[in-house]
Design brief:
Radius of gyration: 27 Å
Number of helices: 17
Helix content: 40-55%
Strand order of the largest sheet: 5-13-12-11-10-6-9
CATH architecture of the largest domain: 3-Layer(aba) Sandwich
Distance between the termini: 30 Å
Bound molecules: pyridoxal-5'-phosphate
Number of domains: 3
Largest sheet: 7 strands, mixed
């Protein structure tokens, strides 16, 4: 075929299968397909089925970019895969609140303006024992707001062993300095003592900050003061202690501290994420002393960092499930965390039977920068290495790990229903 034998854009657009498509969309798709066809002719290949290709290109253009994915990696809170999946009841709250109007900032009893920050204070108080609470867009924003409101232009004392990078090149100290506070680093990477904080406190000090070592551990010759010791030092100088917990699991798991424990140990404000071990939507939660929370609430940054109504609806739905031990396991993150290995292995066996794979023992991880040393016993179905890429490009995409020349489909992060979808995806990838 020669270039001049290609149909024109108009000729293609008049094909009956394209005639009823929106003009702009069809035009762009047709141009893309004709560009590719010209490349093929130059490479000595005869392009075929041009209209089919335009139809396929149109379908691609209409497909959302942000899509549901099946997580077969065995990493529960996978930051690249959207962290915590939401519980059905939390999603129902989003649908209900989002579909119509709501009392987001309206006090129904008084018939006047209310605060969006009031809706979750009760739930969070019951779960953590805190006097007051505030919700912003994410935990990085929560810590930024706390420092801006309590320490702008003044000093914040923090251990060198806690100045972490939280992923994608973002470092906690860089975020903190944007608050306008000056960080005063004490101690060393592996050892910081109570006396180091004591000596660093001066007239310019606004607060002491503890950042939980969420995504790494220093082992061996290491030392950090206990939170109680830090609280005693802070309070003897009339300073608040702010604790950035990172994950903030509401129920105890392994050595991950809970916000309630942190408050009991003497922290005045505790900041944590909504979408890590809590199992809810992206959000930054601050709980603690009401006078301090009030200062955060009045700060101009609060207006810029506040959570939207959909987040608040999902978070309230999540917290309500967490409040009742009978419904707690409806939170997908907690279910995956606690599921007995026999159940996970049975799922892997069923998948292996459906696709002709082999069951293999694996290690699942919490992920999301929490509990880096915690290994969760798990089981995967192993299939051909070459399938990994096809599975990723499928619909719905399946993301899995490749190890020792095989693709491992870890079943701790899949539900029973998803196993059938993964099996269908494996069959489709083989053809
Ligand atoms: C994850 C984490 C953050 C950031 O939380 P986001 O909700 O992702 O903004 C901050 N501090 C610590 C210690 C963390 O683990």
């Amino acid at each position: 075929m020669k270039l001049r034998d290609l149909p024109s854009v108009d000729e293609l657009l008049h094909d009956e299968r394209l005639a009823s498509e929106p003009h702009e969309l069809a035009l762009a798709a047709t141009r893309t397909v004709l560009d590719e066809a010209r490349e093929q002719i130059r490479a000595g290949i005869d392009p075929e089925a041009l209209v089919d290709r335009v139809v396929a290109e149109l379908a691609l253009a209409r497909r959302p970019s942000l899509r549901r994915v099946l997580n077969a990696t065995g990493v529960l809170v996978h930051t690249n895969l959207g962290r915590a999946p939401l519980a059905g009841a939390a999603l129902a709250r989003v649908a209900e609140v989002g579909a119509g109007y709501s009392n987001l900032e309206y006090d129904l009893a008084l018939g006047e303006r209310g605060s969006r920050q009031d809706h979750l204070a009760g739930c969070l108080g019951r779960l953590t024992g805190a006097e007051a609470a505030l919700v912003v867009n994410n935990n990085a924003a929560a810590v930024l707001l706390a420092l801006a409101a309590l320490a702008e232009g003044r000093e914040v004392v923090v251990s060198r062993g806690e100045l972490v990078e939280i992923g994608d090149g973002f470092r906690i100290p860089d975020v903190l300095e944007r608050s306008g506070a000056r960080l005063v680093e004490v101690g060393t990477t592996n050892r910081t003592r109570a006396g180091d904080y004591e000596r660093a406190i001066g007239p310019e000090t606004a607060l002491l900050l503890r950042v939980h070592q969420s995504n790494f551990r220093v082992i061996g010759f290491s030392e950090q003061p206990r939170l109680e010791e830090l609280a005693a030092i802070a309070h003897s100088h009339d300073l608040p202690l702010v604790d950035d917990l990172g994950s903030g699991a509401l129920a105890r798991f392994a050595d991950e501290p809970t916000p309630a424990e942190s408050l009991r140990a003497g922290a005045d404000l505790v900041c944590f994420s909504g979408d890590k071990l809590l199992g809810g939507p992206q959000g930054g939660i601050v709980v603690g002393r009401s006078d301090l929370v009030e200062r955060l609430r009045r700060h101009p940054l609060q207006r810029a960092l506040r959570a939207d109504k959909l987040t608040l609806a999902a978070l309230e739905g999540t917290l309500q499930l967490a409040l009742d031990p009978a419904t707690r396991e409806e939170l997908p993150v907690l279910r995956m965390l606690h599921e007995p290995i026999e159940t996970v292995r049975a799922r892997a066996e069923r998948l292996a039977q459906l696709v002709g794979g082999e069951v293999e023992d694996t290690v699942a991880r919490v992920g999301g920068g929490a509990l880096p040393l915690t290994e969760l016993q798990s089981a995967a179905c192993a299939v051909e290495e070459s399938l990994a890429e096809w599975l990723r490009r499928g619909d719905p995409p399946v993301v899995a790990l490749v190890r020792d020349g095989r693709t491992l489909l870890d079943c701790r992060t899949l539900t029973d229903a998803e196993v059938d979808e993964v099996a269908a995806a494996v069959h489709a990838s083989r053809t």
